[in-house]
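Attaching the record inline, Q. Sequence:
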Amino acid sequence: MDREAQIHRIVEEVAKKPVEVARNESLFESGVLDSFALVDLVSALEQGFGIKIPDSDLIPQRFESIARIEQYLATRLQG
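Structure, as predicted:
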């Protein structure tokens, strides 16, 4: 499973429903997730990708869309 597909699966798990959004579409503005789901999303991403996301990175814009999440994870998974 590629990274984008894995992110999509995690978003669906957090949303508790099938999700059909464009990769650049806002997960929050489209109603897929609300601001309360951000912590659950970050926790699921940490588990799914085996990383620790520091509290200083908990900025909603970083997790706004599947594309933005993928860009963020690319920087965290380097090395």
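The chain is about 45% helix and 0% strand. The CA atoms of residues 56 and 62 lie 11 Å apart.

More tomorrow.
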